[in-house]
Amino acid sequence: MASNVDVLFINPGDRKQIYQNLADEFSAVEPPVFAGLFATYARRHGYEAAIYDVPALMVSAEEAAKAAIEHKPRLVVLVVYGFQPSASTQNMGSAGKIARLIREAAPDLPIMMTGTHPAALPEQTMREEAVDFVCDLEGPVTIVKTLEAMAAGGGEAFAAVPSLWWRRGGDIVRPATGEQLIKDLDEAMPGIAWDLLPMEKYRAHNWHCFDHIEHRQPYAAIHTSLGCPYKCSFCCINAPFGKNAYRMWSPKTIVEEIDFLVEKHGVKNIKFVDEMFVLNRSHVLEICDLLIERGHDLNIWAYARVDTVQDDMLDKLRAAGFNWLCLGIESASAYVRDGARKAFKGDDIKSVVRRIQGAGIRVLGNYIFGLPDDTWESMRETLELALDINTEFANFYSAMAYPGSDLYRYAVTNNIQLPAEWKDYSQHGFQCTPLANPKLTAAEILTYRDYAWQTYFSAPGYLALAEKTFGPAVVDHIARMRSVPLARAQTAAIPAHAKISTFPISSVA
After folding, report:
1. d(Cα 273, Cα 214) in Å, to the nearest integer?
2. What is the per-residue pLDDT across 191-226, written as a single tens digit (0 to 9) for each?
3. CA angle (301 as vertex; 275, 140 as ends), nearest 5
4. Would the pTM of this model clear 0.90, i.e. be above it?
5. Under DSSP, is residue 29 helix (H, G, I), strand (E, B) or coil?
6. What domains, with CATH codes, occur in the chain?
């Protein structure tokens, strides 16, 4: 264990609380990409850094606090990001508990929180959590300048640090200026500090490895860009950036990091964390060309949108090792999708999915139940669409009012009940509390989400596709996954007209 470091980055989280029993075999264990990037930035400014990854190590908050103190850092930074772009808030319970325990045992050790949730609610985070500092934008510049201010004696030196919320006696002081977003990512943060991470702990999502289900490790996740130009109502990804920013690492830097992961750690399975990878055509194609030149045996997945996939990109993506693309389909209802700011037409969805599959790339479809205009009827239509499209895997979510999203502002403005605790933002958690809408309660939305998940993974058409594509071992794996119940604090009855009694012919064909 490194000790006497300048800055210790802690990745908080509780896998069992977030995923319940799915954490044991089925969920991914993902590297903390932002903590790794911030450590690189700090190192490039001459500071010694360490990372403590709580969910990967499967340790308690008490153990994490003890380890933090044993590192003897000058500054502890709790980096509160999620492994989905909108999933940081569910980690605040763990982050807050770790901060309180550190404060109780080492009251003079400075603590900062940064990440999507603190950036969305900086003043509330300062009021509620046992921290000295909160960063309300990107993070790395603020962290380094905070270390500089501490070396200068602290006090009023903190007033010059951009995006830093701090305490003057009993008062909370807001920053006078905002952190400037890093322009040259290649120079400032050319990759993650992989040497600080327990690489043997990370494993890919189960579906990501359906072609080799027993080999989900080693695994890595990287960014090729930061931010997103779109404004989906349910997403809070741009909270740490203060605007709809979109910046990219150069293809050369990205592929060199992949070279390192392959050669040093034997990595095959890679997630591109970008909220939208298949977006900038030249960026995507140059990465593909460089990967094709290398000839690595890769299994990559990345996010795309129905309206960003271009046919002439697909063959190159497949040749470069992109075996999966994740599409945000969200809803069957154009009216509901419009409310979520997804402007593509319903007829486009199935066509794009089939073109991707025709290029030999698997598709992961993302669906959301309970968006503000949803009804029992529209939720059933969404499930019918999912069954009809019949992608190789599917994620089913409940609409959640994540801090930093338009839905959060909508919920606050309209006095709609929010989750009682931050951990209750977890989609798979016991106390998960979706955003109610005028036609559906939170319990009804959550119950339908769980019903849709069970229905999809029991559907004859899906199981036939899985067996044909991946073989009987994966069908058995899916059966085990389906048999793991999610305990829920709230459930509701589903009316008969919202249930599926027959499956679409196309999904069985």
Report:
1. 23
2. 999 999 999 999 999 999 999 999 999 999 999 998
3. 40
4. yes
5. strand
6. 7-173 (3.40.50.2300), 203-497 (3.80.30.20)
